[in-house]
Amino acid sequence: MSEFLLTQPPNGEKRILLHSCCAPCSGSIMETLRVSGINYTIFFYNPNIHPLKEYEIRKEENKCFAKKYNIPFVDADYDMDEWYERTKGMEFDGERGERCTVCFDMRLERTALYAHENGFKVFTSSMGISRWKDMKQVNESGLRAAGLYPNLTYWIDNWRKKSGSQRMIEIAKNERFYQQEYCGCVHSLREVNQRRKAQGREMVKIGVKFYGDI
What we know:
Layout: E1 15-19, H1 23-35, E2 39-44, H2 52-68, E3 73-75, H3 80-86, H4 98-117, E4 122-125, H5 135-146, E5 153-154, H6 164-175, H7 186-199
Parallel strand pairs: 1-2, 1-4, 2-3, 4-5
Helix pairs in contact: 1-2, 1-6, 4-5
């Protein structure tokens, strides 16, 4: 394993809670934590993902990848109704807009709560590694969530650096992960399909495309 993958959490912590949005995004981070000797647990809380079929594919794939390396996996609630309530009125915000901030806040607030209730002093998220995301926006949500509880730290690390993004793609291809074609929420799906229609391309097909497919 390349030396560049090694990392060190804040305050020398060896027990980390990793909020994971999906296996493709978290794959290289999971590898980095593992080879760095860090004891971590995956927290899967992503009520934004639509439709349910897409949610189940992403969750089960992440769960299976964690099981492969004996990593504890916490399967949190799929409270889609709460997500819709919190993002009401933001349906037509563009990617990286206020709707995304509210979405990140909701997911990382729940992660922070679980960390606080289960003795984790540090948590982080895989969301910032995605090319679809504004890393600063994700990190600001993480810091706000950590601030809700005493002695809880949100770990800011640029997981894209030092070939992290490239390694993410390599792992996804090697594992033949499901290749997601939109962020996850119903609004991002609508926006992607609108662009595809304007370009004369096929609409997104749920559950049919995998890394490595020709």
